[in-house]
Amino acid sequence: MTDTWLTPDEVSQLTAKKRWSAQCKALTMMGIPFRPNAVGRPLVERAMALISRAPPKPKRREPDFSSLVRAI
Fold first, then answer.
1. How many CB atoms lie within 10 A of CB 36?
2. Do residues 35 and 42 make contact, with C-beta atoms less than 8 angstroms apart?
3. Nearest CA-CA partner of 6 in 29, 28, 35
4. Over the stretch 11-64, which tens digit does the pLDDT of each residue have?
């Protein structure tokens, strides 16, 4: 039987971080969803860690040229 959540050691290995706050930041950067528990330790579902995810790409903003168009 497998556990639903990664162990604290597995989260530490996955993120290469020891502090919970640093682990949360690393998980966010890696695009892996997690939930902080009551004391702040990140809980990562085993299935979510196994899914290959790329961090979300920021949406590219295009300039608004509508104010530069002169009314004829």
1. 13
2. yes
3. 35
4. 999 999 999 999 999 999 988 999 999 999 999 999 988 886 666 667 788 887
* pLDDT score of 3 more than 50: yes
Q: How many domains does the chain have?
A: 1
Domain enclosing residue 39, as ranges: 8-50
pTM of the model: 0.69
Residue 37 covered by a domain? yes
Write the CA distances from 23 to 5, 38, 45, 50, integer angstroms. 15, 15, 14, 17
- Do the domain assignments include residue 14? yes
